[in-house]
Design a protein that fits this description.
With about 270 residues, this protein is of the alpha/beta class. It contains 11 helices and 9 strands. The structure holds adenosine monophosphate. The site of adenosine monophosphate has 17 residues, from helix 2 and strand 5.
């Protein structure tokens, strides 16, 4: 496995004809959610490049950026043992050299939900993913449904900017408790960890009630009340159109439940199809 640290090293790596290249962008602190995307990439492409970069422009606070879990050496060992071809590990100076002035902003889609609660977050994601795609020029790039709005934003920017890459989604990988795997789970206190699986339970109960025909507005209000009762501070729980993320007041095909809530200091997001 090669570790690439400069744009020219990536270009050099990319130059020989190598069959289809798959890219799995990550911020490291790898868990089974990331590794499932690596396996999906290995099944669908000939060689897999994993990027590991904790992107400062997608964080809303320096504290969150600084305490974000990092485990580069362990990540390298894991990826090596999986037979990944290469890892791209850029530095901040490489990604955002002095004078860097461009932001990729997907208007509308990146301004609602996460865009509202974490202003600028999805612009940071869109910008760094555009750069990663331009640097590595993969045939396919793999993203988790866990970050559902992020996946839609990336699909949209790739279409809007005519980028020659296929975006492939991978399903959310969960703990047996139902909690979606996330690097940030490592930051949960024991009490928060106990509480955290409640988010998925509420998503499931809400989905069931909607599918049973109960009025969406009432079911959502009850779901939010349950989250609060459990001890979560809620940002949102909503039924949305799975393509536009427009809020729905009645179930229709393609509906998706999305949620963001804090069981304490850590913010969790989750979603499920109906
Ligand atoms: P991150 O390192 O958190 O930026 O995530 C890198 C990629 O892994 C993104 O495409 C995420 O959506 C995906 N991912 C994170 N957690 C999970 C999970 N539990 N299941 C599937 N994919 C995930």
């Amino acid at each position: 496995m090669i570790v690439l640290e400069t744009v020219s090293a990536v270009r050099e790596f990319r130059r020989p004809v190598r069959g289809r290249l798959g890219l799995v962008p990550t911020m490291g602190g790898l868990h089974d959610g990331h590794l499932s995307l690596v396996r999906l990439a290995q099944a669908q492409t000939d060689e897999v490049l994993v990027s590991i970069y904790v992107n400062p422009t997608q964080f809303n606070s320096t504290t969150d950026f600084e305490r974000y879990p990092r485990a580069f050496e362990k990540d390298l060992e894991t990826l090596e043992s999986m037979g990944v071809t290469a890892v791209f590990r850029p530095t901040d100076a490489l990604m955002y050299p002095e004078g860097f002035a461009t932001t990729v902003k997907v208007t509308g889609l990146a301004e609602i939900w996460e865009g509202k609660y974490r202003p600028g977050h999805l612009d940071g994601v869109a910008t760094v993913v555009t750069k990663l795609l331009n640097i590595t020029r993969p045939d396919r790039a793999f993203f988790g449904e866990k970050d559902y709005q992020q996946l839609l934003v990336i699909r949209k920017l790739v279409r809007d900017l005519d980028m020659a890459v296929e975006i492939v989604p991978g399903p959310t990988i969960r703990e047996p408790s139902g909690l979606a795997l996330s690097s940030r789970n490592a930051l949960l206190s024991p009490e928060e960890r106990q509480l955290a699986p409640g988010l998925k339970r509420v998503l499931d109960d809400t989905a069931q009630a909607i599918l049973a025909g109960q009025p969406v507005g009432e079911v959502i209000t009850a779901g939010i009340a349950t989250l609060t009762g459990l001890g979560f501070t809620g940002d949102y729980l909503a039924l949305v159109d799975g393509t536009t993320l427009e809020e729905l007041t009645a179930q229709r095909p393609g509906g998706r439940l999305i949620a963001a809530a804090h069981p304490g200091n850590v913010r969790l997001i989750d979603n499920r199809a109906l």
